[in-house]
Write a structure and sequence with these properties.
Helices cover 24% and strands 16% of the residues. By secondary structure, the protein is of the alpha/beta class.
Length: 139
């Protein structure tokens, strides 16, 4: 079973606006949340769930990912949409697939993620959530 599909960042934001039962789940690491910033879903009156797909600092797959989704208030089989985001849209695909396999969702992936892919010089930031001017905060 595969996830529900990819959404461009602006489409993901509109999806969250149009579906008040939907949640944004940021699957990056604690370090990324702290030093890069996080999507801000407060303007639509809901939190962004922070659940690591890979753990920091070792980068290992988070063995408690599904349990932590449940601890964050989501339940398999409840039909509530989950929109997953990571740095570039790759880890969030794996997270959406795992969530779907566990009965969550529909589960979507934010294409290009929070910072987008790297350019020819190895820099990020020209695509993704932040580049599209969507709400975000930095600690």
């Amino acid at each position: 079973m595969t996830y529900a599909g990819d959404l461009a960042p602006t489409d993901a934001w509109q999806y969250l606006i149009d579906h008040p039962d939907a949640a944004l789940v940021d699957v990056r690491t604690r370090a990324e949340w702290s030093f890069v910033g996080v999507p801000n879903t407060q303007p639509i009156d809901r939190p962004t769930a922070l659940v690591e797909w890979n753990t920091f600092p070792d980068g290992a797959r988070n063995p408690r990912f599904i349990d932590q989704l449940t601890e964050a208030g989501y339940e398999p089989g409840d039909g509530k949409p989950l929109v997953f985001i990571c740095r570039s849209g790759q880890r969030s695909i794996a997270a959406a697939e795992a969530a779907t396999a566990a009965g969550f969702g529909p589960a979507y992936n934010v294409a290009d993620g929070f910072e987008g892919p790297t350019d020819t010089e190895g820099h990020r930031g020209f695509k993704g959530w932040r580049a599209d001017g969507l709400p975000w905060v930095q600690s």
